[in-house]
Write a structure and sequence with these properties.
By secondary structure, the chain is mostly helical. Helices cover 81% and strands 0% of the residues.
Length: 196
């Protein structure tokens, strides 16, 4: 239904800005229908409209492209588009979107075992989520940061971030996630021979 309505709007004489907005809706609908190839084509057609590279809508387009590639496991392609989206979101000081992108970029670096860049992106995301008070995302970020520090044998930093994650999960009432963090903390304490 969304696609049909968008197609009828696209058939009329509308501005490039309006066309971009309509195509973005169509691309998202195709993405929901798991028609990724068509969605990618639609998103690329938006970038070909000749809009200013500073248009905020292009940030949304790049973000959607990145999401598709991320879900497909094409992390390098996803990273490229997340970074393009991040540039635009920074121009508009869109902190919510910046946090989401930093989190995804951090997860990509983590999957590529690039811990240094993963930590940079995840710390950046955590700063934004601390301000906005998004506790679920923040707990997940602290858990990932703690795991990275554990891999790097920085046990003090690992413990600190894991305890923050545990506290947030406890406040949220997420017992399963809290148990996951406890398992990570046990690994830290066993490594440090802190058996008590």
């Amino acid at each position: 239904l969304v696609i049909a309505k968008v197609d009828s709007v696209l058939a009329t004489g509308i501005s490039d800005q309006e066309r971009a907005s309509a195509l973005l809706l169509k691309g998202k609908a195709l993405q929901q229908l798991e028609q990724d190839v068509k969605a990618i084509s639609i998103f690329h057609s938006i970038t070909a409209l000749g809009l200013s590279s500073k248009e905020e809508i292009l940030g949304d387009v790049y973000f959607q492209l990145a999401e598709i590639y991320y879900d497909q496991g094409s992390f390098k392609q996803a990273q490229k588009y997340y970074l393009e989206a991040l540039k635009i979101f920074r121009l508009y000081d869109n902190e919510a979107r910046m946090g989401a992108v930093d989190l995804k970029i951090g997860m990509i670096y983590l999957s590529l075992f690039d811990y240094e860049h993963a930590l940079q992106s995840l710390h950046s995301a955590s700063e934004i989520y601390e301000i906005s008070g998004k506790e679920i995302e923040l707990a997940e970020i602290y858990l990932m940061i703690g795991q990275i520090y554990f891999e790097q044998a920085d046990f003090s930093s690992a413990e600190s971030h894991l305890l923050k994650a545990q506290s947030l999960y406890k406040n949220l009432g997420f017992s399963t996630s809290q148990n996951e963090v406890m398992d990570e903390l046990i690994s830290v304490y066993q490594t440090l021979h802190r058996y008590s």
